[in-house]
């Protein structure tokens, strides 16, 4: 919410100098393959995104050690959009036109993705987006390696309904598009499961909210009609700290009122004393505690790269890991880094998840992923208590009437927003 | 009249000349019509900088000349952006919706088009009905005047209430800051009907000009911004000269005395406050189509404080100072934060400018306030400045009278 | 759903002792389910284990619920686990120790919370009379979570022998709850319900409300012999659209034609560029579409849509009512009466709780603003870096906690240290910057803002952007609960007391000390004060230092209840200024009134609109802006000479 100011002459000197020094027409196929890393290194999102930048550098280093791609080395072009949303568009344009990168890995917030979308569609770039998001979007130029709502929110709520027998829901979220959309989808889904409208309590708070006493009291009071209450939290970032502290103070244990969070992972818990929160839940596609050989070697490589064996790994890192490796394989398969053949080669790519099983890139540019539900442990890690079969990501949710009729298929239909009722492509570019 | 005005204000002539040269140079070097030495991304940066210079001019008039430290002008700037943004977004979405509906055998009704637009703009977080605030967005002729009307009316009401109650000095600064914060929080809400935190995006595409490449579009916007800055400079230079300008400076130096002389001080203040709000809004209206996206973070209170920082560093009380400040600080700022500045290794610690630029800016700001209240523009006086150590220049608080007579 | 299956399954098991198996048999037969249990299917397995009568069944269930049951990877044998430094100490299901194993050899089973609840319910029969009171309490918790009819008899039987008075009272209460739900006859249930009159506890309402659950029904005539809560009149108690939807769902009336369906129907009957005689181009308006559809209806090409008159007739031909799930009217009447007697008290207590929340928020604002009340209120210096002093205090607390692991000691060290650090920072800032700008208040604002952004960035560079933990000592954990509704966390109580303390300190300092006298003198007339032998420089420096120091202590308190980030200060700065301005500058009571008004007002808006806290903050600020227009000098305005300008 805080903003780093106006970002203007991002690479003034470089921008001016580049055309003078580098003749851009010659030898396009020579030299290293350039990979743009578009993650904020300063500003409010730096805490989350810097980790992803490091993950990308690690993956690129590993790939270069294996001999690069197509016999060429990879070179990371790291820029800092500084958590400033218009700057994301500016930096993306710069990466594509000045640095001439072949692919970009980046963005975290929805608004930054929406800012970048028009630019990459205009210039036909390629972006891998690694964070769980609200869906309702599909762009030809973007591969969504994070979870769509049906890969995180819906299974988590199913777990609440089936395993915990929750009959009354409090949907608490920060007021922005991801919680709003997710909660709308969940409301509609819960109603279809027979939960009455008055048994769904919704609340939105500002970013960084700290005064939670009234909201926690409201949630506790929901139990007055004898129904079992559960909280679905899409609260973002720092605000979680005050929220969980207030929950602990009010004596809300996981037995009484379980909380499942979609934005709280290992990284966020490191700012908290979790002894009072044991048993509350989170839903992700990856937990650091997953017991597989792939995950073990990934964590080892990460600790070695970052030179700190206390650092945690998290879900978006796995998303980049899968996305990057799929891109490498797609480029190898296509024999070129040109965007259109790579996009075609991406669909159908398979790569092992860190949590076991195979991720597959679908024609709608989303992945199939297993959904994991974890209970918070006293050491800030999660006990994985439920792991589903891989779930195919759905760009347009089936639980809202207006988007149930939409479908995304870049392979056969060649359309990201296809209306299955009227059998027409609503639009080729994405909505932003 | 104009001749005498320009001859009396040689700095205005110089400024316009330099601006024209600069514009011509960039146009020739850019991709759109010239030889393509300057990439489109940088043309957009320059175009945006020109808009920032314009809003800095407005800030200079209200603060440097009239002595009202408004911490709310970036809110007007962003409001202007929102007003154009609504039209741009509606028009672009309408094209898509009409095209999609054209596939159906039954021609769409107006309501169906409007509902389609609403569904497209708001996705699943809104209803299929457009909120009231979008009532005029379907028409450029109705919506674009709102760029002036909405911020103007807001400034008028706010100013009228505040000046009537004789809220001034730091109280007014805090109050304007509260206004900005309230507006930002309001826009952050999804329920306010302006897409909450996501804001309005995809503004770089002009409706009806889908075929025009961004390289051409960016240079057109750049030219428009330059023209706007020139017009704004002339307007504000004209307002701040002559009798009216003297009255403004008198308000800054001693409001009470002017009131006793029979001047309607509140009227003057209200006029300047509203006028500068409208100038800021116009600057915003041209800025955000070049940025491509506007969201509520743009009008966080700190944005308006940065505006004051630019003007203070550039030099208050002279229009070209504001322009210099806005251009220099914002361009330097993004150069440092863009990771382009070389890091300085100190052996035990490496100074990364991404991390330390803000510290440097903050300290520079303190130093400028303490030792060079005239800012960069003060260099033009080429007079050996007395060591001030915080002493006042004139008999009254914050006065800058010595140099004013010939500025 | 399951709570009804459980007794059923139990009954089946008890009725068919011939089917009873030994514990190892059950475990072997249901191995897959035990290793990956789901709440929906595990019930019979748990019951079968409980029904084996094996003495170690209870121990196994307990271990399973505690996540201390594991499977050896090598051979699939199941053990009870106990953590040791080397790994797990194993105990066989038969109760014999089976050595130890490294953790990597054992898959420990992790039943989810729903399964654990079922296990707990099954354990009730073993633990209700357990000699260990802790076990008995767990059994009661399990009953409270999943009440079942089968538990009533054993629970009642166990009340007699219960020695512990607390447990006994809880057992009686639970027995009451079970009776009102599962009692045998109407009279005992009504008696159980009425005994709860006036009890506002959450579990009482949770027990009574389900009795009043209703479902909305529609029929041609009111049915006899059902317990009807209310009959509804369309257009009055229920919107006509909703009533018609009920009819449609019940299959009693055809669905109305939606505009989308109409369009689809029209599109299916396009002939020669026209539909029903209306040219396609004209179909871009709704009236023409209706006309085309009517033409199609007339020619019989589309089914006739229900007209408004038909809808009205259908609505009038049916009755709409809410029906209780509970068939006994005496029980529902009693429950309604009892709840009504509770509701008013609940309302009052909710208001009291809201009041406490408001008080708490006000004390936080006051604490954040009290330093400003000194620097801005008394000295008229705008210190935009005030928020960063709060942040510095919070980070001081964090650093101290890193060095001193004992939370109580570290807080006691952190409070004075935070004061010292920010006092020093304040004095330094006053000497270096503010001293030169006393005559230019607007420029103080800008210079201190420069310091503010620099300090914020320095904090980011040192501590990173991630929130840092500042944990309260254990004695501040939990909440002060008057009952289930009115409660407030101890940390907030502590902040409230701290705010009171500083109010007292400020008053004492200003009114009772030499320093306070000198401060007031310097504020009113520095030149005169100087000529009386007061050193205005020293006074300004000290005053500013004290104001900053208090901000540092406020930082520790705020960090304890929320978070410690570099942006902590900027979250409070605008509110702090408004607190001082709204209350009235130059008067500590003003700051207090300002904080009370802002906190109270915000909570009231939150109460009015509980789903959007952001809106509450927006309207609060708008209200403040308006308020200042009408009382520009704040709630408590200084009069006369002290008012200055």
TrEMBL record, chain A:
Keywords: Signal. Residues 1-28 form the signal peptide. The keyword Signal applies. CDD domains: PBP1_FmdD-like. NCBIfam families: urea_ABC_UrtA. This is Urea ABC transporter substrate-binding protein. The gene is urtA.
Automatic annotation (TrEMBL), chain B:
The lineage of its organism: Bacteria, Pseudomonadati, Pseudomonadota, Alphaproteobacteria, Rhodobacterales. Residues 387-407 are annotated as: Disordered. PANTHER family: HIGH-AFFINITY BRANCHED-CHAIN AMINO ACID TRANSPORT SYSTEM PERMEASE (PTHR30482), SLR1201 PROTEIN (PTHR30482:SF4). It is found in: Cell membrane. It is a multi-pass membrane protein. The chain crosses the membrane at residues 45-64, 71-90, 140-163, 170-188, 217-239, 267-287, 293-312, 319-336, 356-380. InterPro entries: ABC_transp_permease, ABC_transptr_urea_perm_UrtC, LivM-like. This is Urea ABC transporter permease subunit UrtC. Its main location: membrane. Keywords: Cell membrane, Membrane, Transmembrane, Transmembrane helix. Residues 398-407 have a biased composition (Basic and acidic residues). GO terms for molecular function: branched-chain amino acid transmembrane transporter activity. It comes from the Bacteria. It comes from Gemmobacter lutimaris.
From TrEMBL, chain C:
One of its GO terms (molecular function) is transmembrane transporter activity. It is found in: Cell membrane. One of its GO terms (biological process) is amino acid transport. It holds the Pfam family BPD_transp_2. Keywords: Amino-acid transport, Cell membrane, Membrane, Signal, Transmembrane, Transmembrane helix, Transport. The chain crosses the membrane at residues 358-378, 410-429, 490-510, 541-561, 573-601, 613-630. CDD domains: TM_PBP1_LivH_like. It is a multi-pass membrane protein. Residues 1-20 form the signal peptide. GO terms for cellular component: plasma membrane. PANTHER family: ABC TRANSPORTER PERMEASE PROTEIN, BRANCHED-CHAIN AMINO ACID TRANSPORT SYSTEM PERMEASE PROTEIN LIVH. Belongs to the binding-protein-dependent transport system permease family. LivHM subfamily. This is Urea ABC transporter permease subunit UrtB. It comes from Gemmobacter lutimaris.
């Amino acid at each position: 919410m805080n903003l780093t100011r106006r970002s203007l002459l991002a690479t003034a000197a470089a921008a001016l100098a580049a055309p003078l020094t580098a003749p851009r027409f010659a030898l396009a196929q020579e030299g290293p393959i350039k990979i743009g890393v578009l993650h904020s290194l300063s500003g409010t999102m730096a805490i989350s995104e810097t980790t992803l930048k490091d993950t990308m550098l690690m993956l690129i280093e590993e790939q270069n050690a294996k001999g690069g791609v197509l016999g060429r080395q990879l070179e990371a072009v790291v820029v800092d959009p500084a958590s400033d949303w218009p700057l994301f568009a500016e930096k993306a344009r710069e990466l594509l036109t000045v640095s001439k990168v072949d692919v970009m890995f980046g963005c975290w917030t929805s608004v930054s993705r929406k800012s970048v979308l028009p630019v990459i569609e205009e210039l036909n770039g390629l972006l891998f987006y690694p964070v769980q998001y609200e869906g309702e979007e599909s762009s030809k130029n973007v591969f969504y390696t994070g979870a769509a709502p049906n890969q995180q929110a819906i299974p988590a709520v199913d777990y609440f309904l089936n395993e915990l027998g929750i009959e009354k829901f409090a949907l608490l979220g920060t007021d922005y598009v991801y919680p709003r959309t997710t909660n709308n989808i969940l409301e509609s889904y819960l109603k279809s499961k027979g939960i009455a409208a008055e048994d769904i309590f919704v609340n939105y708070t500002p970013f960084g909210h700290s005064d939670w006493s009234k909201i926690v009291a409201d949630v506790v009071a929901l139990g007055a009609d004898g129904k079992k209450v559960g909280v679905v939290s899409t609260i973002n970032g720092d605000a979680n700290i005050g929220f969980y502290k207030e929950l602990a103070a009010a004596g809300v244990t996981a037995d009484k009122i379980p909380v499942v969070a979609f934005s709280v992972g290992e990284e966020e818990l490191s700012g908290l004393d979790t002894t009072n929160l044991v048993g509350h839940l989170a839903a992700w596609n990856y937990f650091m505690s997953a017991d597989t050989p792939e995950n073990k070697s990934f964590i080892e490589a990460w600790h070695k790269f970052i030179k700190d064996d206390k650092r945690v790994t998290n879900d978006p890192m796995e998303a980049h890991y899968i996305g990057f490796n799929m891109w490498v394989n797609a480029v190898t398969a296509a024999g070129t880094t040109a965007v259109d053949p790579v996009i075609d080669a991406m669909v159908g790519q398979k790569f092992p998840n860190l949590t076991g099983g195979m991720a597959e890139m679908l024609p709608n540019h989303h992945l199939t992923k297993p959904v994991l539900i974890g209970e918070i442990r006293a050491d800030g890690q999660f006990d994985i208590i439920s792991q589903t079969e891989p779930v195919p990501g759905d760009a347009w949710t089936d639980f809202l009437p207006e988007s149930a009729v939409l479908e995304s298929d870049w392979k056969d239909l060649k359309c990201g927003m296809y209306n299955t009722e009227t059998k027409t492509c609503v639009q080729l570019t994405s909505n932003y | 009249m104009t001749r005498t005005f320009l001859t009396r204000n040689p700095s205005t002539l110089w400024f316009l000349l330099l601006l024209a040269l600069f514009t011509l140079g960039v146009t020739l070097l850019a991709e759109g019509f010239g030889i393509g030495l300057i990439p489109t991304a940088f043309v957009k940066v320059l175009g945006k900088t020109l808009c920032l210079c314009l809003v800095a001019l407005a800030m200079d008039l209200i603060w440097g000349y009239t002595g009202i430290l408004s911490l709310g002008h970036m809110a007007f700037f962003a409001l202007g952006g929102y007003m154009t943004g609504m039209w741009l977004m509606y028009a672009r979405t309408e094209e898509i919706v009409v095209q999609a509906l054209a596939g159906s055998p039954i021609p769409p009704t107006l309501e169906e088009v409007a509902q389609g637009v609403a569904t497209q703009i708001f996705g699943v977080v809104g209803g299929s009905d457009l909120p009231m605030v979008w009532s005029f967005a379907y028409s450029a002729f109705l919506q674009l005047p709102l760029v002036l009307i909405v911020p103007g009316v807001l400034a008028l009401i706010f100013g009228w209430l505040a000046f009537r109650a004789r809220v001034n000095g730091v109280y007014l600064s805090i109050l304007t800051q509260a206004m900005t914060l309230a507006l930002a929080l309001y826009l952050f809400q999804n329920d306010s009907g302006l897409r909450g935190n996501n804001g309005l995006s995809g503004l770089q595409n002009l409706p009806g000009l889908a075929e025009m490449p961004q390289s051409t579009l960016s240079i057109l916007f750049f030219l428009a911004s330059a023209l706007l800055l020139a017009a704004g400079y002339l307007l504000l230079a004209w307002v701040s000269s002559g009798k009216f300008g003297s009255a403004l400076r008198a308000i800054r130096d001693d409001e009470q005395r002017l009131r006793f002389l029979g001047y309607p001080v509140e009227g003057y203040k209200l006029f300047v406050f509203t006028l500068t709000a409208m100038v800021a809004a116009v600057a915003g209206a041209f800025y955000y189509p070049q940025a491509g996206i506007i969201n509520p973070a743009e009008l966080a209170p700190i944005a308006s404080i940065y505006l004051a920082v630019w003007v203070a560093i550039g030099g208050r009380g002279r229009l070209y100072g504001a322009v210099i400040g806005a251009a220099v600080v914002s361009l330097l700022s993004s150069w440092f934060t863009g990771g382009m500045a070389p890091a300085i290794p100190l052996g035990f610690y490496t100074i990364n400018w991404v991390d330390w630029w803000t510290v440097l800016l903050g300290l520079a700001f303190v130093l400028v306030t303490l030792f060079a209240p005239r800012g960069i523009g003060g260099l033009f006086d080429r007079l050996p400045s007395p060591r001030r150590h915080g002493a006042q220049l004139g008999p009254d608080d914050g006065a800058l009278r010595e140099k004013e007579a010939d500025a | 759903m399951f709570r009804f299956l459980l007794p059923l399954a139990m009954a089946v098991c008890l009725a068919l002792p011939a089917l009873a198996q030994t514990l190892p048999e059950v475990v072997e037969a249901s191995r897959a389910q035990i290793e990956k249990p789901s709440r929906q299917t595990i019930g019979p397995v748990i019951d079968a284990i409980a029904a084996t009568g094996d003495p170690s069944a209870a121990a196994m269930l307990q271990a399973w619920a505690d996540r201390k049951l594991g499977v050896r990877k090598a051979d699939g044998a199941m053990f009870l686990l106990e953590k040791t430094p080397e790994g797990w100490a194993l105990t066989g299901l038969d109760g014999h120790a089976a050595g130890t194993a490294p953790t990597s050899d054992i898959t420990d089973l992790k039943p989810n919370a729903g399964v654990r609840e079922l296990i707990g319910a099954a354990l009730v029969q073993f633990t209700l009379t357990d000699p260990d009171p802790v076990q008995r309490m767990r059994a009661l918790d399990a009953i409270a979570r999943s009440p079942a009819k089968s538990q009533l008899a054993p629970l009642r039987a166990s009340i007699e022998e219960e020695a512990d008075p607390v447990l006994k009272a809880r057992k009686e209460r639970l027995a009451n709850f079970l009776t009102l739900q599962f009692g045998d006859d109407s009279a005992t249930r009504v008696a159980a319900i009425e005994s709860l009159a006036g009890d506002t506890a959450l579990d009482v309402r949770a027990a009574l409300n389900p009795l009043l659950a209703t479902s909305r029904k529609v029929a041609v005539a009111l049915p006899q012999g059902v317990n009807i809560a209310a009959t509804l009149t369309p257009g009055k108690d229920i919107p006509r659209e909703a009533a018609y939807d009920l009819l449609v769902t019940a299959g009693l009336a055809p669905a109305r034609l939606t505009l989308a369906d109409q369009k689809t129907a029209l599109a299916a009957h396009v002939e020669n560029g026209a539909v029903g005689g209306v040219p396609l181009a004209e179909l871009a308006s709704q009236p023409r579409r209706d006309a085309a559809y009517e033409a199609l209806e007339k020619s019989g090409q589309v089914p006739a849509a229900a007209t408004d008159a038909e809808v009205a007739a259908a609505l009038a031909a049916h009755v709409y009512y809410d029906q209780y799930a509970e068939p006994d009217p005496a029980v529902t009447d009693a429950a309604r009466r009892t709840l009504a007697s509770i509701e008013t008290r609940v309302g009052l207590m909710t208001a009291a709780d809201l009041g406490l929340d408001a008080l708490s928020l006000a004390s936080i604002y006051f604490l954040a603003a009290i330093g400003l009340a000194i620097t801005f209120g008394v000295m008229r210096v705008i210190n935009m870096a005030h928020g960063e002093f709060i942040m510095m205090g919070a980070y001081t607390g964090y650093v101290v906690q890193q060095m001193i692991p004992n939370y109580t000691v570290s807080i006691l060290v952190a409070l004075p240290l935070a004061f010292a650090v920010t006092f020093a920072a304040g004095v330094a800032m006053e000497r270096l910057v503010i001293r030169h700008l006393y005559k230019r208040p607007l420029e103080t604002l800008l210079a201190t803002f420069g310091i503010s952004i620099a300090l914020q960035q320095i904090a980011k560079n040192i501590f990173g952007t991630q929130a840092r933990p500042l944990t309260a000592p254990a004695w501040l954990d939990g909440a002060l609960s008057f009952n289930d509704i009115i409660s407030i966390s101890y940390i907030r109580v502590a902040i409230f007391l701290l705010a009171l303390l500083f109010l007292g300190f400020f008053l004492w300092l200003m009114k009772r000390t030499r320093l306070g006298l000198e401060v007031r003198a310097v504020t009113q007339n520095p030149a005169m004060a100087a000529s009386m032998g007061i050193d205005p420089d020293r006074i300004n420096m000290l005053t500013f230092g004290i104001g900053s120091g208090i901000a540092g202590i406020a930082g520790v308190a705020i960090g304890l209840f929320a978070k410690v980030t570099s942006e902590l200060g900027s979250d409070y700065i605008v509110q702090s200024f408004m607190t001082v301005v709204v209350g009235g500058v130059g008067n500590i009571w003003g700051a207090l009134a300002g904080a009370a008004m802002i906190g109270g007002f915000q909570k009231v808006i939150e109460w009015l609109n509980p789903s959007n806290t952001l809106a509450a903050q927006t309207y609060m600020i708008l209200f403040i802006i308006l308020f200042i227009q009408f009382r520009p000098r704040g709630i408590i305005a200084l009069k006369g000479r002290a008012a200055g300008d």
